[in-house]
Amino acid sequence: MTRGSLRGEVAIVGIAEVDTFQSDGRSPVGLMAEASRQAITEAGLILGDIDGLFTSSAYYSMPSLTFSEYVGLHPRYTDSTAVGGCSFEAHVGHAAAAIRAGLCDYALITYGSTQRSDKGKLVSTAEWSPYEQPYGMWHPISPMAMIAQRHMHQYGTTSEQLAEVAVAARQWALRNPAAPYQTPLTVDDVLSSPVISSPLHKFDCCLVTDGGAALVLTSAERARDLPATPIYVLGFGEAADHRNVTGMPDLTTTRAEESAARAYAMAGVRPSEVDTAHVYDAFTISLLILLEDLGFCAKGEGGAFAGSGAIAPGGSLPLNTNGGGLSYTHPGMLGLFLLTEAVRQLRGQAGDRQMPGAAISMVHGMGLTLGAHASVVLGAERAL
Length: 384
Prior knowledge:
Strand order of the largest sheet: 3-2-4-7-1-8-11-10-9
Number of helices: 13
CATH superfamily of the largest domain: Thiolase/Chalcone synthase
Strand content: 15-25%
Number of domains: 2
Pfam families: Thiolase_C_1
Order of helices and strands: EHEHEHEHHHHEEEHEHEHHHHEE
Number of strands: 11
Structural class: alpha/beta
Protein name: Thiolase
Helix content: 25-40%
CATH topology of the largest domain: Peroxisomal Thiolase, Chain A, domain 1
CATH class of the largest domain: Alpha Beta
Shape: globular
Distance between the termini: 12 Å
Largest sheet: 9 strands, mixed
CATH architecture of the largest domain: 3-Layer(aba) Sandwich
GO molecular function: acyltransferase activity, transferring groups other than amino-acyl groups
Radius of gyration: 19 Å
């Protein structure tokens, strides 16, 4: 094991998701509390066992304190790293490091949002950009449209190829009884849906949902005595370079290349050895670029890769097998829900969408307009 490696030393021992479309009156912290209760129970623990808390929120400026007060938790280690939707992949690496260092024994990562119930009431102007908003930039769709235009110009990517990304997500969602829309989606459906910001259509954009999720981690040694099948952290990497799209060095290449390279190296695996991939899909174009940067296809070939059927059921890369943000859930930040689905696949608990023999999963989160990235390679025991 190389210096700085966390490979196989920490395991996920409990997961939960709640109210992944629309909540029935719960608050964001209430969703966090219920998901946490279920994940802790699955792990065979009680709330008092949790001594490490990791969370991020668009609702609370100090979410670890809000949550601790709400449930009566007294952690000895907290982390509220906020880098957008990939915060929770970052938290996995941070929690693994803290557990290995003895700073906590049982770490809880949790998140909750009532974005759908709020109907757009949550609007933040805390980081208003004088370089974007005065010119009509509507975050995040306008920056993503700029990125799509550039990828199309540079590599010949087409709207039809982007539509194939959304169609594949819906095909996976049809295998997930918890997904909200159980009707097929076609390329024509995507292309005939309203243009939100050219060239992106309505179905190029993620859902807007409520939802809460949580997972519990501990050392591999402690995990052996707990009831749930442990899923191990094999590799981890982070990278970032901008907050606003006007600060993005290259509109078609991201720092995901770096975060993924670090995670693959720590795990000792190559992209070709990944059994399932769980990659942040806020928009079809962002997912397509991330597939390139994560090494699943060459730069500029994402459109052809998606168009070939590679990411649909039966394709070469089982991707976002629950339907992802495009067709399952997207409560403001998706990162934690990517992790829970990866754990289900590696435990063999994914039902009709289960990939036989899945042993290694790549989970990748992005933050904001492809500015922050965190990659986690997870593995079943046979992958150690």
